[in-house]
């Protein structure tokens, strides 16, 4: 046990470095809290605490940080993201105009964002099964199926 007590500072520095390296690769703040706990154990050892007290201090600091500091940090890091919808979510509700008439076999629409998509009319009641949208008709995208926009007349 004399060896552990004599070289405890080196063990704490080693743990601290390992935890920091793992934290840099994972970026989830768990190993950062363990690294700070290791620093607490190192400081306790530098002030002459026995090795069992150093381990206790390191464990208490790490656990307290994990449950008190880490959750608000994760919430703060999650804030500030761009709330603008992207990809397919950005196409829902976008307006467009028909460039190739949309009939039973489908057609094409040019959306307000400049993209041209193959399009079909959204399945509707049987009474409107014969509807054809001519070139220039305004439409609204309601869904995407594969590479086809499902549209309804605007």
Strand order of the largest sheet: 1-2-3-5-4
The Rg value, from CA coordinates, equals 31 Å
Poorly predicted regions are: none
* SSE series: HHHHHEEEEE
Biggest beta-sheet profile:
5 strands, mixed, barrel
Count of β-strands: 5
Count of spatially separate domains: 2
Q: What does the overall shape look like?
A: rod-shaped
Helix content: 40-55%
Distance between the termini: 81 Å
Structure commentary:
This protein is of the alpha+beta class. The chain has two domains: 2-78, no CATH class; 88-153, Nucleic acid-binding proteins (OB fold (Dihydrolipoamide Acetyltransferase, E2P)), CATH 2.40.50.140. The protein contains five helices and five strands; from the N terminus they run αααααβββββ. The chain has a five-stranded mixed beta barrel. A hairpin with a 2-residue loop joins strand 4 (138-145) and strand 5.
Give short descriptive properties of this protein.
5 strands; five-stranded mixed beta barrel; alpha+beta; OB fold (Dihydrolipoamide Acetyltransferase, E2P)
Brief summary of the model shown:
The protein is an alpha+beta fold and 154 residues long. The chain contains five helices and five strands, in the order αααααβββββ. Strands 1-2-3-5-4 form a five-stranded mixed barrel.
Explain the layout of strands and helices.
Layout: H1 2-26, H2 30-46, H3 51-68, H4 70-78, H5 88-91, E1 95-103, E2 106-111, E3 116-121, E4 138-145, E5 148-153
Parallel strand pairs: 3-5
Antiparallel strand pairs: 1-2, 1-4, 2-3, 4-5
